Amino acid sequence: MSGSAENDGVVLVVGASGGIGRAVLLYYLAVAEYARVVAVSRGERPAELAPQGERLSWLVSDYTEASIAQLVRATLSDGERLARVVICNGILHNAELEPEKSITRLNASAMHEVLHANLVVPSLWLAALPQVLRGSDSCRIAVLSARVGSIGDNRLGGWYSYRASKAALNMVLKSAAVEFRRRFPQVKLLAFHPGTTDTGLSKPFQRGVAPGKLFTPAFVAERLATLLNQLEPDGELSYLAWDGAEVGW
Ligand SMILES: NC(=O)c1ccc[n+]([C@@H]2O[C@H](COP(=O)([O-])OP(=O)(O)OC[C@H]3O[C@@H](n4cnc5c(N)ncnc54)[C@H](OP(=O)(O)O)[C@@H]3O)[C@@H](O)[C@H]2O)c1
Asked: Hey, what domains does the chain have and what are their CATH numbers?
């Protein structure tokens, strides 16, 4: 819990070069209660993060299964345990793809790319964690989902691949929560909706956002960390927005 001494606790932030990933990393570096913060990214450690000394470890990954399994093992030193894991990977658009406004725009390679980044990569990280979790470990794990992954909330349609990737991600997280309930009863899983956050991902879609509803990554990081502190391990997957409100499935 916030304020308690977690001297042996390590925070793992995956996708640490993204807007939200970077803010989550900076948040955990700024609070004193964790022994170390391990960042994982496709990119190299930014120069401005160099003077963090031994509290920050920066691991570069190509997000292949082999890399993920190896880096999870490299995350902890003797006597350390995972206290927090935040998995931030996700794409909505890039130079080659954009969210589909119509089903007629579906394209196999673009859909595969979105599913890989948003579903397969976070799932592989989750799949690798049991290697380093012990049955008694108290650990809270957040994966960046999105409200548009809610089937019940889908009134506007469109964004086929992105919506599908987040709905499928939620299902993987739900199954993991059921499995972890027995194996790791002190682990809590959160599928987190950050709200529209000012990052490269949302940039092309910010025009219609109501005033005050475009969040800074730093605000979202603080909300995420606070929610993780408040949640108790209950064997369930929580699907929560930045304000703590439940998102319907
Ligand atoms: N921004 C929003 O408004 C918003 C709203 C709802 C949900 N989200 C979710 O929040 C998460 C973080 O998004 P963001 O806003 O911080 O976006 P961002 O700044 O574009 O960051 C992209 C993230 O995805 C990773 N990534 C990029 N391409 C990838 C690929 N091909 N394979 C695997 N990982 C890849 C990056 O990790 P590296 O460090 O390896 O580059 C980084 O963590 C995403 O899951 C997104 O869906 C964001």
From this structure: 6-241 (3.40.50.720)
